[in-house]
Amino acid sequence: MSEHLRTALDLAASGIPVLPLRAGKVPFGNCTRCADNACGGRPNMKNPGSCTCPGPCHAWAAATTDPEVIACGPWRRAWLRASAVAYHPGGAGLTVVDLDHADAIAWAREHLPVTQTVPTTRGEHWLYLGRMQSANDVRPGVDIKSTMSYARWLGFGTGTMAHLPDAVRALALSKPAPTRPTPQALTASTPAGSGECLHRTPAFLERGIAMAEQSITEATSGVHNAVYRTFLAVLSAHGRCGCLTEEHITRLFTAAQDKGESARHCITAWSNARTRLGF
């Protein structure tokens, strides 16, 4: 049994959902069957989609505490190639304030309650008891990892875990809103619905959009290509039934612009994806 697998099983036994990370501290890519979200959903969630893939294919959403899943089949093979163990903080009822450098740590010591602290390669993770929506770049060098996100497991650290304070929740609420694309462009880009709606539950589309946002956010290189591939996957899965709204498209454009993509490139990528699919 590899060291990473042993650690994962120990964490799972404590109620912490885990997943393997490959080189570069990123999740394992989707299998052929699940490529471009063709499976239509993600496993190991309270309201799962249609995906029954047994592999660790879906980033934070694949995180699980089930030892039979973790230690068997595709997961066991993944641990042999894994470079690190990650966990889903929100799934464990936790929030991680990720402080990337000394200035961010100094700010946290001045403005946030003392809590359990874990050293990282460049800074510290501050762990709080309670969950919230994750948010990146809430201030220089500060990310919040909780629901719909993952964090590397780096040990238990030191100190006593405090309850999630309002000061941390306020960081996500006060994050400056990125520039939105023009409403005219969004309206023109919304597909007309003529196909059969395959969204079997009200949460199906929401999970698809959330997964697309996560895919863009976690892109580590080739952002242009990552944005285009994600737009293509969303339109392929959800573009023909008429369920996509301007709000959904704006969320995707916002995630792309948070990664440095311009509004013009977002519109071009969306248009190209529509053209490729014959819309």
Task: Give your account of this protein's structure.
The protein has 279 residues and is α+β, with helices and mostly antiparallel strands. 39% of the residues lie in helices and 14% in strands. It is built from 10 helices and 10 strands. It has helices at 3-13, 67-70, 73-81, 102-111, 166-173, 183-189, 203-217, 223-238, 246-258, 263-277, and strands at residues 18-22, 26-27, 84-87, 94-99, 116-119, 124-129, 135-139, 142-145, 151-152, 162-163. Strands 4, 5, 6, 7, 8 and 10 form a 6-stranded mixed sheet that branches. A 4-stranded antiparallel sheet has the order 2-1-3-9. The longest helix has 16 residues, at 223-238. It is globular. It starts with a helix and ends with a helix.
Descriptive key words:
single chain; 279 residues; alpha+beta; six-stranded mixed β-sheet; 10 helices
| Secondary structure tally: strands | 10
Radius of gyration: 19 Å
What is the mean predicted local confidence, pLDDT? Answer: 83
- Helix % is 25-40%
Query: How much β-strand is present in the residues?
Result: 5-15%
Amino- and carboxy-terminal Cα gap: 50 Å
Regions with little confidence, pLDDT below 50 for 5+ residues: 177-189
Report the principal-axis shape: globular
Elements, N to C (H/E):
HEEHHEEHEEEEEEHHHHHH
Q: Assign the structural class, choosing from mainly alpha, mainly beta, alpha/beta, alpha+beta, or little secondary structure.
A: alpha+beta
Largest sheet: 6 strands, mixed
Instruction: Please tally the helical runs, counting DSSP H or I stretches of 4 or more residues.
Output: 10
